[in-house]
């Protein structure tokens, strides 16, 4: 028997495959060809463009995702069909300015799917204890699919860009067909109730969101810091390519390790561990002050962010079970993207020395750790003690 989560995993793999095919097809286009050697104004423009879809997703798409008849399943189905249509339009617009609004539409649809997918996860498993495992498996599916599909996409790209886009069209259509068998759930009513608003403002959710913003911010900072700093080093482009490759592998490894880590600690401890790891690694890389140290720091930062994301999503999915999940994830994803943009724009404008950039990462990690603890993101009571407290409260009521 095929479980709802297996069906969601299949849809996710197909969506990632289509995304990979599109990225490979447009790798040579102006829209996605921002290189480390590009002018600073172009990189800043790229950062601004990366924020633009969230201006649509946060206020409009999130509520629509929650209220649409047929629930999140219908949203995923429509996204698959629309993404296939967008790629067909791109195939006929590669040398036209029409490519830009189509690429913008693809970004909006990508973020819409991400929101719907995160909202669907709790309904595909039983209980909340397996949320980290479920999110981890979806991360593993994404990482492996991206690596696997990149090869045939690159081969088709040698034939023509239209052939690569055609592959994307086929897999997006397959994703839409598979989405029809996902659970049919409508999460929210027309407006969030006061109880739902209170759930989304609990200390656990707010502190987890803060930790995730810190981690996303240092990921953006490290990416652009290395991109500009390594230009001044011998074989800078090769070093930067190695940094990207190791970061991708570190992210995949973190998704594999996530369930094992969750079995040994609570989600809030996972977030705390990720912040502490970034703090120590940043200070250590600044003291070492070598290219290798910077590359290893980038890989660790990406791994910490991946691990933190598993804990963050589980916190929102379980900490606010009755809330409008589409709206919640739209809001949090907007905040995370803003943190990534702010983190990325700092090294673009100021170009700090290598060691100074690494030290900034370390000190931001330390500040994030202290703030996370002060916000109540971590409690040092045992699970048994918390269970007894809940039992006492229930008896007193």
Automatic annotation (TrEMBL):
Signal peptide residue numbers: none
GO cellular component, one term: plasma membrane
Keywords: Cell membrane, Membrane, Transmembrane, Transmembrane helix
Predominant subcellular localization, coarse grouping: membrane
Keyword Ribonucleoprotein part of the UniProt annotation: no
Locations listed in the record: Cell membrane
InterPro entries membership: MFS_trans_sf (IPR036259)
Entry membrane topology: Multi-pass membrane protein
Transmembrane annotation, as ranges: 12-31, 43-62, 162-180, 210-230, 236-257, 269-288, 356-380
Gene3D superfamilies: MFS general substrate transporter like domains
Protein name listed in UniProt: Unannotated protein
Gene source species: freshwater metagenome
């Amino acid at each position: 028997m095929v479980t709802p989560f297996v069906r969601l995993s299949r849809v996710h793999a197909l969506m990632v495959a289509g995304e990979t095919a599109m990225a490979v097809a447009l790798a040579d286009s102006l829209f996605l060809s921002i290189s480390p050697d590009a002018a600073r104004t172009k990189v800043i423009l790229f950062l601004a463009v990366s924020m633009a879809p969230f201006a649509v997703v946060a206020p409009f798409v999130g509520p629509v995702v929650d209220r649409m008849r047929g629930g999140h399943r219908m949203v995923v189905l429509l996204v698959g069909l629309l993404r296939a249509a967008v790629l067909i339009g791109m195939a006929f617009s590669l040398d036209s300015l029409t490519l830009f609004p189509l690429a913008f539409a693809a970004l909006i649809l990508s973020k819409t799917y991400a929101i719907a997918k995160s909202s669907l996860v709790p309904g595909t498993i039983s209980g909340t204890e397996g949320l980290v495992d479920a999110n981890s498996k979806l991360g593993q599916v994404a990482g492996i699919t991206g690596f696997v599909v990149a090869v045939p996409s690159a081969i088709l790209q040698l034939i023509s860009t239209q052939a690569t886009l055609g592959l994307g069209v086929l897999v997006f259509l397959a994703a839409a067909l598979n989405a029809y068998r996902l659970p049919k759930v409508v999460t929210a009513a027309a407006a969030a109730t006061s109880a739902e608003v209170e759930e989304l403002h609990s200390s656990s959710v707010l502190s987890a969101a803060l930790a995730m913003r810190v981690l996303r911010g240092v990921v953006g900072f490290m990416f652009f810091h290395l991109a500009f700093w390594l230009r001044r080093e011998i074989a800078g482009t090769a070093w930067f390519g190695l940094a990207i490759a190791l970061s991708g592998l570190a992210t995949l490894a973190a998704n594999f390790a996530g369930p094992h880590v969750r079995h040994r600690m609570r989600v809030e401890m996972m977030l705390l561990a990720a912040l502490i790891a970034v703090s120590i690694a940043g200070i250590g890389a600044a003291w070492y002050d070598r290219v290798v140290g910077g590359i290893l720091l980038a890989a660790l930062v990406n791994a910490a962010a991946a691990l933190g994301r598993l804990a963050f999503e589980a916190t929102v999915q379980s900490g606010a079970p009755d809330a409008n999940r589409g709206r919640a994830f739209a809001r949090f994803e907007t905040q995370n993207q803003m943190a990534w943009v702010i983190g990325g724009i700092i090294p673009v404008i100021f170009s700090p020395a290598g060691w100074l950039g690494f030290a900034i990462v370390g000190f931001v990690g330390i500040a994030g750790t202290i703030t996370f603890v002060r916000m109540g993101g971590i409690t040092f009571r045992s699970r048994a003690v918390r269970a007894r407290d809940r039992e006492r409260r229930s008896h007193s009521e």
